[in-house]
Amino acid sequence: MPRIIVCLKQALDVSQLKADPSSRKLVTAGVPRKISDFDKNALEEAVSLKEKLGGEVVTITSSAEDAKTSIREALAIGADKGYFVNDEGLRNSCTLATSHVLAEAIKKIGQFDLVLCGEASIDGFSAQIGPRVAEILGIPVLTYARSITVQGDTVTAERSLEDRYETVRTKMPAVITVTREINEPRIPSLMAIMKASKKEIVSWRLADISVPPEKAGEQGSGVKIMDVSAPKVERKKETIQGESPREIAANLVKALIQDGVIGR
Amino acid sequence: MNDHKGVWVFSENYELMLELLAGGRPLAASLKTELAAILMGSQLNDRATELVRHGADKVYSMDNPDLKDCHTERCLSLLAKLAIEHKPEIILIGSTKSGKELASRLAARLETGCTPDCVQLDINGQGTLTTKRVVYSGNAVVTATYLKKPQIAAVLPRAFEKPEPTERKGHVVTVDVKIEKSAVEIVEINEIRAAEVKIEEAKIVICGGRGIDKKEDFQPLIELANLLGGQVGNTRPLAEDRKWFTEWIGLSGKKIRPALYMGCGISGMIQHVAGMRDSQVVVAINKDPEAAIFEVADYVVVGNLYEIVPAIAEQLRKQLS
User: From 3.90.930.50, 3.40.50.620, 1.20.272.10, 1.10.10.10, which CATH number describes the A3-215 domain?
Assistant: First the structure.
């Protein structure tokens, strides 16, 4: 009966981001946050593995912001317990610092068979946390899994790569990162939401998981963000005129030939 | 922090490694240091000299039958060992999926920072690497710099153009390879559409979205693509929801930058735009004049794709004959 730890990031809801029109700087203040999409796939996979094999699913989140609403949602989806490292000292952490914090938290949670993560987060999309956590814990990692099968102490995953699917196998404990293809996350029922309010969320500060301040936040980071701007959109947005589809097509083809992208 | 020297490039994809040399060359020049390529594989023959001709000052060559498939685990341990020994200042890695895993794990082992999917690399006034990459589903460009060394960056394919080979001199170092037993066993590999040209390499992509009612209705798009020597692509809902295809163009799928992208019946969800925004010229065909895709298009065609697409094909046939 496996014990599964799911790493959940509370990410910015990127569909709601707006840029300041004059500075082109991105406005992130006040943008709603949610469980990062692929992490929700990881949670769904963990919960369905539990439904098949038994065992336990717990989640781990680290954030300087409050994330309890997101963790409650995870409990409603089917996690048994949520762990939350909540500390001001986490601000401006890059993946080096974040993975260190998550790995220390996982060590404190104790025995486990699998750590599941999304292939990347929907906001930063760095795809580094899973592989980094595996390295720190000194266990194997299977990335970009589109299916997971557990048999005894062995886990098999089908990896979705650019030009191939690769079936890989390793002994547990292991870290697996999952793609969106792996499942369709469930929407919790009202009953499940009510039951979730009785489940436990364990809150920790950095000191509780023995992470010194210099290992978290900017001090513990290898990379510093200098600027976040909206990309320049330099499109012509020229409407192709014409009375009929044929005339429109002729005008479009003419424009494309002039641009040198087709024909000669 | 100052004892780190040299710019390294590595990718399990040889063509991408050549592009990385183009990305690394100006960094090495700016830092007045050497550019080294880490070559791993089996029966490498004259690849080391070819890397020198494409800009490497030094090539660390690891030739071993067990490196034939560039297994991530094996490449990682060899690369980490070499980096600990020689302390490079910058390591550029090809940002494929395997490359990103390798870069992240290498950064973890060397306890340093890493930025993935970089499209631009510069050296700032302090001699530190700065990188640019697209985040937030294509809604933002992040500029980042490093606080630790080595500075690891995974660089996207086609961020740099493969350099022209020239006659130049370089130093080839043969490295002894000891293959360690891997914890991960590869059971099976299934190639995806290996016979076809990859969509990322197509010069012209005709892309269909939810405005296409039936899979059969892709035929006019295929005909148009064939006429132009291009490829057909699709958005995620057509693959994930309607199960017509196994791949898609978008944030979580393929990222393309063709000379011409033509979106047919595509609304322009940011997740899709993230996969095509670097296209050189964008044409969008949609019957909804408010469609978001028009915001990122050079040519806006408001109309029925079922009429417009065949009309474009007809027009092209006329031009070609």
Answer: 3.40.50.620
Nearest CB among A128, A140, A168 relative to B114 is that of: A128
- Do B225 and B273 lie in one domain? The reply is yes
Q: What ipTM score was computed for the predicted complex, to two decimals? A: 0.89
How large is the greatest C-alpha to C-alpha distance in chain A, in angstroms?
Answer: 71
**A31 at the B interface (CB within 8 A)?**
no
Residues B37, B168 within the same domain: yes
- Quick check: is B188 in a domain? no
Out of A123, A136, A171, name the one closest to residue B135 (CB).
A123
Query: Residue B162: CB partners within 8 Å, gap ≥ 6?
Result: B15, B18, B19, B22, B54
Check whether residue B168 and residue B27 sit in a common domain. yes
Q: To the nearest 5 percent, what fractions of chain B are helix, strand and coil?
A: 35, 25, 40
Give the structural domain span for B262. Answer: 199-320
> B294, A237: Cβ pair inside 8 Å?
yes
Which chain A residues touch B146 with a CB distance below 8 Å? 222-224
**A258 interfaces chain B, CB cutoff of 8 Å:** no
**What's the CA angle centered on A104, arms A101 and A105, to 5 degrees?**
85
Q: CB of A21 within 8 Å of any CB in chain B?
A: no
Give the CATH number of the domain where residue B292 resides: 3.40.50.1220
Show residues of chain A in contact with B315, CB under 8 Å.
246, 249-250, 252-253
- A220 Cβ neighbours under 8 A, 6+ residues apart: A93, A96, A97, A100, A214
Is B100 within a domain?
yes
Q: Is some CB atom of chain A closer than 8 A to the CB atom of B144?
A: yes
Distance from CA of B172 to the nearest CA of A (A): 31
On the 0-12 / 13-18 / 19+ scale of CB atoms within 10 A, B178 is exposed
On whether the CB atoms of residues B177 and B41 are closer than 8 A, the answer is no
- Chain A residues with CB inside 8 Å of B227's CB? none
Q: pLDDT in tens for each of the 321 residues of chain B?
A: 468 999 999 999 999 999 999 999 999 999 999 999 999 999 888 999 999 999 999 999 999 998 987 789 999 999 999 999 999 999 999 999 999 999 999 999 999 999 999 999 999 999 999 999 988 867 788 999 999 999 999 998 878 989 999 999 999 999 999 888 889 999 998 887 544 568 888 889 999 999 999 999 999 999 999 999 899 999 999 998 899 998 899 988 888 989 999 999 999 988 898 899 889 899 999 999 999 999 999 999 999 999 999 999 999 988 877
* Whether residues B106 and B254 fall in one domain: no
Contact B233, B199 (CB under 8 A): yes
Model's pTM, two decimal places? 0.82
